Amino acid sequence: MASKRSTTDAPAGKPDLADYRQWIQSKTGRAKLPPRNNPYWGPPVDRGLFVGYRSLTHGGNWIARWRNDQGEQCFHALGRVDDDDKDAYANAQKAAREWLKRMRAGIKSSEVATVADACREYVSHIRKEKGDATATDAEQRYNRTVYEHEIGKVALTKLTTKRIQAWRDELGEPNERGKTLGRASINRTLTALKAALNLAVRDRHVSTEHEIEWRNVKPLDKADNRRELFLDLTQRRALLASAEGPVRALMETAMLTGARPGEIARARCKQFDPRTGTMEFDGKTGKRKVFLTPAAVALFKSAAKHKHPEAWLFDNYGTAWNKHVWNEQVQKAAERAALPPGVCMYVLRHSFITEAVMGGLSTSEVAKMTGTSLAMIDAHYAHLVQASAERLARIALI
């Protein structure tokens, strides 16, 4: 009795094109199909769903076709055929079913397909919701860690927990300049990536079943963001005395206001009001108006003198400041002043906040002045309030 042949086996001899549904299911059958633009369609995979094989001169591609409830034909490229994979056709069917599932769920897979696409979409979203400063901060972070990294090319539907964990761990390795990200910075970058991916889910660019892949990636332990390096008044004056060129004004502004370096570098002359002695900083938490000390007012008046309202308040010889440029110049000034390693613009912000809290300002006041949350100030500086109270208890006031 003759054995029954599997439908995935190619028929012997020359292919009968009227029966090509069988032929696309095996490597030998696909090899005998003449190249043509129109795909060879297989049997139905699901209701209205078909997998096709587009035969090329060398190899071929899988393609899916589905007729929706409105009678419209929808097509989706499934990728190159891997003839070394004995389950190539079965895997193409599986991919087609996954695509159909996304289509029925309203997933707009063609608009935002990769991790980089999701990050760019997120930047556009927060630019509308929170303004340019917040969007620029996110965009610069993605520029450094996603857009030029392999993870940026990964399809959202193929992103895995293991791949994200590997990317997170790679962030701690030295870059081309020998710089490394601290654990707290890595965690902030991971949070930024998750925010972009969550928006992609919300906007139906990827189904909710993929969300578990990044939800499973946890922040690094022992990543306390408290900055231990503090510059006292003598050290801060030594740093300013060692500064060369326009970077001195940048550093002095950080010392006098506690503003983030990016907020200072992006400030326009129109944000400073010399009549009221106020400055409107625009940072990642939005815009805030702060009252300046007499020393800061004098510095800002000098910086804004003879400049157009739209001009940079603080520039680098007529050009906008770049993070890498000011970092290098601050580091060189710190070396000339024989200060401890690790001095940067954020150390000056930290020193301002420390002095303000130790000087008696409430944590809520300091949070408003520096554009951060009260929770952050309490988490990293509340111990200074207790220390001030203990010192006060040792002083004979009456």
UniProtKB/TrEMBL annotation:
Keywords assigned: DNA integration, DNA recombination, DNA-binding
Pfam families tied to this protein: Phage_integrase (PF00589)
Report the source organism: Dyella telluris
Please verify whether the record's keywords include S-adenosyl-L-methionine.
no
State any GO BP term from the record. Answer: DNA recombination
Task: Give the protein name, as stated in the record.
Answer: Tyrosine-type recombinase/integrase
Q: Which GO terms describe its molecular function?
A: DNA binding
Q: Which InterPro entries does the annotation name?
A: DNA_brk_join_enz, Integrase-like_cat_sf, Integrase_catalytic, Integrase_recombinase_N, Tyrosine_recombinase_XerCD
All copies of domain Tyr recombinase, residue ranges = 226-397
User: Does the record bear DNA-binding in its keywords?
Assistant: yes
For region Disordered, the annotated ranges are 1-21
